[in-house]
C-alpha cells in the first residue's frame, strides 16, 4: 500500500503534513544535538577539598585556552595577602593553644596577640611593617615547633612559600604571576564548568567544591559523564578534616572514592586517580613517616616489608605512593580499569605530562565503549576530533 507515501508527497491532509514536517525537523535537530553531545568529552574533577582540582583546571585553561589576564592576576595578589594572614593567624592560635607562645621573644608577643584577634579577610592589615613582623614570627623557634605539629590543627601547608615572601607581597606594587595564581587558595563553592578544545576534541570540564557541605551538589553533574579525574592530596595522610577534626583526610578521601566509583551512574565511566601534592608528600616523609601515624602504621609496615622482598631498597616516596595506591585500589569495588598517576598540580610540566597520559587513556576507553574503536588513529572515525 503506497497511500502513506502518496499522502506525504502530494500533501494529502495538509495540516497533518505540516505537523509531520515540523516533527521531522525537531527529530533532525535533536539528532544533530545528540551527535554534537557525543563529540564532547564530559569530565568531572572530583575529590576532597584542597586536593588540587581547581589548580589543575587553571593549568588546563592557561595551556589550551588563554593565559590569565592582568585583571585576574591583580585579584590574585589580594587573595595571597589573605592567605598569608589566615596562615599566620592559624599558626598563632595553635601556638597559644599548644602553650608554646611562652617561649617567644617579648618583641614577638604583640604580633601573636594581633593575629589571634584580627579579621584575616581585611587584607589591608598586611602592611610592609606588619609583614616584617610576621616573617620574624615565622622564623622563630616556637613557630617552627608549632608548624612541625601542623597535623593537630588546620593549615594550608603550601602557603609557606608566601610567608617567606611576605614583605614583597605586602608591597602595594606587588604583581602576582601565574605561579602565584596556582598556589593561591580560594575555596571552591558550587559547580564551575569550562569548555576547552584539546587536540581537536571538545572537553566540558566540571570543577566542584570538595568540602562535605558541597558534595550533595555533585549529583547535578552525574549524567553522561565520560570520565572522572579523582584528586587525592597524598600529603594529607596525617591531617584531619576541616569539617570533622576526628576524621583523617586520607581516610575520608578513600571513603569518598569508594562512594564515587561504585555509584551506578559511573558504571561505564573512565576513572583516573591523581595522587597529587607529591612534592609536599616527599618533604613531609622526611619528618613524619607514614609508620608514625597510628591509622596507617600496621598496614604500611606490612606493605613495606612485602615490597622490600621484591624491590631492592625501595625509597620512602615510592613505598608511600604504592601504599596509598593499593588503598584506593581496594576501595575501587572490584574495578580493575582505574588509572593511577602521581602528580604535582602546581608544577606545570609535570601536571601537563600526567594529563596527556590520562587524556589518551580517557579517549581510548570512550572510543572502545561507544564505538568499538581501540586505535587512537581512528578518532576521526568516531567523529570525536573536529
Task: Report on this structure.
The protein has 386 residues and is an alpha/beta fold. The protein contains 17 helices and six strands. Residues 1-14, 26-34 and 376-386 have low confidence and may be disordered.
Q: Any key phrases for this structure?
A:
17 helices, globular, 6 strands, single chain, 386 residues, alpha/beta
In brief:
The protein has 386 residues and is an alpha/beta fold.
> What does the average pLDDT come to?
86
Largest beta sheet: what is the strand line-up?
2-3-1-4-5-6
Shape: globular
* SS elements, strand count: 6
Residue windows where pLDDT falls under 50 for at least 5 positions: 1-14, 26-34, 376-386
Radius of gyration, in Å, reads: 26 Å
Helices and strands, in order, run as HHEHHHHHHHHEEHEHEHHHEHH
By secondary-structure content and strand pairing, the structural class works out as alpha/beta
Binned, the helix content reads 40-55%
Distance between the termini: 44 Å
Quickly count the helices.
17
Largest sheet: 6 strands, mixed
Approximate strand percentage = 5-15%
Write the layout of secondary structure elements.
Elements: H1 3-10, H2 14-38, E1 40-47, H3 53-64, H4 70-97, H5 109-115, H6 128-139, H7 141-147, H8 160-163, H9 166-170, H10 178-183, E2 191-198, E3 201-208, H11 212-215, E4 227-233, H12 249-261, E5 270-276, H13 278-285, H14 294-310, H15 316-331, E6 339-342, H16 348-371, H17 379-382
Parallel strand pairs: 1-3, 1-4, 4-5, 5-6
Antiparallel strand pairs: 2-3
Amino acid at each position: 500500500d503506497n497511500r502513506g507515501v502518496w499522502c506525504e508527497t502530494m500533501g494529502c491532509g495538509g495540516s497533518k503534513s505540516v505537523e509531520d514536517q515540523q516533527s521531522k525537523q525537531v527529530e533532525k535537530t535533536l539528532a544533530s544535538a545528540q551527535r554534537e553531545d557525543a563529540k564532547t568529552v564530559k569530565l568531572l574533577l572530583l575529590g576532597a577539598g584542597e586536593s588540587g582540582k581547581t589548580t589543575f583546571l587553571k593549568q588546563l585553561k592557561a595551556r589550551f585556552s588563554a593565559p590569565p589576564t592582568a585583571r585576574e592576576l591583580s585579584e590574585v595578589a589580594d587573595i595571597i595577602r589573605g592567605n598569608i594572614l589566615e596562615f599566620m593567624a592559624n599558626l598563632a592560635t595553635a601556638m597559644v593553644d599548644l602553650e608554646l607562645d611562652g617561649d617567644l621573644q617579648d618583641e614577638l608577643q604583640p604580633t601573636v596577640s594581633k593575629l589571634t584577634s584580627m579579621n584575616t579577610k581585611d587584607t589591608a592589615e598586611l602592611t610592609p611593617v606588619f609583614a616584617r613582623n610576621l616573617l620574624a614570627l615565622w622564623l622563630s623557634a616556637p613557630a617552627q615547633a608549632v608548624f612541625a605539629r601542623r597535623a593537630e590543627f588546620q593549615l594550608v601547608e603550601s602557603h609557606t612559600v608566601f610567608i617567606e615572601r611576605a614583605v614583597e607581597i605586602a608591597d602595594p606594587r606587588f604583581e602576582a604571576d601565574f605561579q602565584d595564581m596556582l598556589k593561591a587558595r580560594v575555596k571552591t563553592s558550587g559547580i564551575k564548568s569550562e569548555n576547552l578544545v584539546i587536540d581537536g576534541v571538545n572537553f566540558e570540564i566540571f570543577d566542584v567544591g570538595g568540602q562535605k557541605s558541597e558534595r550533595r551538589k555533585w549529583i547535578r553533574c552525574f549524567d553522561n559523564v565520560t570520565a572522572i579525574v579523582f584528586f587525592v592530596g597524598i600529603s594529607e595522610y596525617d591531617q584531619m578534616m576541616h569539617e570533622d577534626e576526628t576524621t583523617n583526610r586520607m581516610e575520608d578521601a578513600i571513603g569518598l572514592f569508594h562512594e564515587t566509583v561504585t555509584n551506578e551512574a559511573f558504571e561505564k565511566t573512565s576513572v583516573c586517580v591523581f595522587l597529587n601534592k607529591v612534592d609536599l608528600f616527599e618533604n613531609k616523609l622526611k619528618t613524619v613517616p607514614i609508620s608514625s601515624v597510628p591509622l596507617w602504621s600496621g598496614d604500611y609496615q606490612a606493605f613495606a616489608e612485602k615490597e622490600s622482598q621484591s624491590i631492592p631498597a625501595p625509597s620512602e616516596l615510592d613505598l608511600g605512593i604504592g601504599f596509598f595506591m593499593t588503598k584506593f585500589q581496594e576501595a575501587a569495588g572490584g574495578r580493575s580499569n582505574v588509572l593511577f598517576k602521581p602528580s604535582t598540580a602546581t608544577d606545570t610540566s609535570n601536571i601537563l605530562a600526567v594529563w596527556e597520559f590520562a587524556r589518551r587513556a580517557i579517549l581510548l576507553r570512550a572510543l572502545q565503549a561507544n564505538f568499538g574503536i581501540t586505535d587512537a588513529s581512528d578518532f576521526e572515525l568516531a567523529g570525536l576530533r573536529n
